[in-house]
Amino acid sequence: MRALWLLGLTTLYVGACSGGGSDDTSTEGDDDDDDDDTSSTVDGDDDDDVTGDDDDDVTGDDDDDDTTEPLPSARLIADGDAGAVQIIDVATEADGLSMPSDIAFHPDKGSAWITNRDDDSMVVLTRPGEKDQVADYYWSAIGSNHFLAKPAALAFSEDNFDFATIHEEDELTQGPGATPADFMGPTLWTGKQFQFDGGHASHLDMLHNSPNGVGIAWVEGNAYYVFDGWNDSITFYDFNADHGLGGADHSDGEILRCVEGEVSYVAGVGSHLVFDPATRWLYVADTGNNRIAVLDTNTGTKGGPLTPNYDGLGPGQFNYMDDAVMTTLIEGADHGLELPSGLEIDGDVLYVGDNATGMIHAFALDGRFIASLDLGVDPGALQGFAIYDDAIWFTNESDHTISVVRAN
Predict the structure, then answer these.
(1) To bridge 91 with a disulfide, which of 78, 95, 203, 368 should be the other Cys (CB 3.0-4.6 Å)?
(2) What is the pTM of this model?
(3) CA 186 to chain CA centroid, nearest Å
(4) What's the number of CA atoms in the CB half-sphere (13 Å) around residue 168?
(5) Which of 153, 174, 120 is nearest to 395 (CA)?
């Protein structure tokens, strides 16, 4: 259903903000002074309004519109009925958790991979939630402090089953006189657990232009979007052909910075992303602006070059993306949100975690509110979560736990 209403919003120009759009590769550099304001809210009145009151309204807000789609069920939180769900801890400090910041499930193996922000490590749960669950802890003295520095989020590729992490780090990670403090960005890792060690030997690639990254979403192949807290932007990274285990050649990568200044980073809070491959729309937990935004990655043209170019990327591989369109889908204040953070889609339902309140809110994909569930965690504890086996698996940084919400 979500493909149907989203496809009606825009003509699909495949891959514009993801690297395939038209180029304007002038060397004027920074586009911060661009007079074109490409940010808009989705409840406005212009011709491109996607949830407003004009003739193309798709949300049914017009009182005379009798074609409003019924709200989908937020089945994973029992439509907000606290008495109809169970919340169970499945992993704790005893399993190696230390401020767990995000969780993702291996697309092929079903194992749960968890990032620990406190000590630059990861925990992998085999047979997660089962009586014979096994927890393995990964940290390496050779490289975890750089390649896995303060990991905020991770995402798996469904093409090759490798994964990437992004890191909330803006300090030196390789010692005085080595790489600078802003030499941070996403790391590509092997998804083969027998090869993984959390350090230099098991990383497949790394690109360096996004310190304080706090969200990541897989697109295709080795391509990902990142919430770039250093630049308050959404940045596209394509590792292309990885350099192999423990390598160092990053020169075939591509980095494109979109909508700089239109999103807002909050220190210590994940700003998670979800990419819809059917529409190529990127859903964004824009924490600092207390909203859920949508970036139309089909829009935008390649602009001037970025700096500094730490990876030796060639012309056209390291650029701004001009005029990419980002719209506001959900104004958090309208629904009691304070710090939207976690983000996942299940069918026609968008689930949003609030770091400030410990609640999960459910919305239809057109932004209409469905229900909320209080998880009963401390303020600031709830970070990333994942949907697996018809349940929500969420991180609790305060209690160092992974818990599961399952409807009865």
Answers:
(1) 95
(2) 0.86
(3) 12
(4) 22
(5) 153
Bridge-based pairing state of the strands 121-126 and 112-116: antiparallel
Mean pLDDT within 72-100: 98
3-class secondary structure, 67: coil
325-331 vs 301-305, strand pairing mode: unpaired
What DSSP string runs through 265-300? --TT----EEEETTTTEEEEEEGGGTEEEEEETT--
Residue 228: strand pairing partners: 213, 233
> Confidence class of residue 308 from pLDDT cuts 50, 70 and 90?
very high
Task: Tell me which DSSP letter residue 3 carries.
Answer: H
Backbone dihedral angles phi then psi of residue 354, each to the nearest 5 degrees: -110, 115
Cis peptide before 315 (omega within 30 of 0): no
The number of CA neighbours under 13 Å toward the Cβ of 371 is 15
Sheet holding 151-156, edge to edge: 151-156, 163-167, 187-189, 203-206
274: phi then psi, degrees, rounded to nearest 5: -135, 130
**Contacts with 344 (C-beta within 8 Å, 6 or more apart), sequence order:** 272, 274, 350, 351, 385, 386, 387, 392
The pLDDT mean for the chain works out to 88
The strand pairing partners of 146, in sequence order, are none
Cα–Cα distance, 112 to 120 (Å, whole number):
17
- With tokens 């919400």, the residue in question is 405
With bands split at pLDDT 50, 70 and 90, how would you rate the model's confidence at 66?
A: low
Answer for the pair 82, 133: CB distance below 8 angstroms, yes or no. Answer: no
Helices then strands (H, E): number in the chain? 2, 27
* Per-residue buried b or exposed e for 268-301, using 16+ beta carbons within 10 Å of the residue's own CB: bbbbbbbbbeebbbbbbbbbbbbbbbbbbbbbbb
Phi, psi for 28 (deg, rounded to 5): -70, -15
Q: Find the distance separating the first CA and the last CA of the chain, reported in whole Å.
A: 26
- Residue 191, judged by CB atoms within 10 A of its CB (0-12, 13-18, 19+), counts as buried
What confidence score (pLDDT) does residue 67 get? Answer: 62
